[in-house]
Amino acid sequence: MDHYLESQIRTIESRLDRIEQELGLVPDGPAISDLVAQLAHDGKMLDAIRVYRDETGADLAAAKEVVESIPR
Description:
72 residues; mainly alpha
């Protein structure tokens, strides 16, 4: 699959995730891996955001919001 198509799919998935959250269809919020949680806990926010984006395909704004919501 080419990079443009992959990017479009990630964008659509991210938008769908936000719609589901707004409608209350995602009761626990976004899934956060242990690695992302540990990076955020260690104060490595940029690394946590990058890993979260790689894992989920979320856009930068959505990934930043999720990582910043992780309790430290």
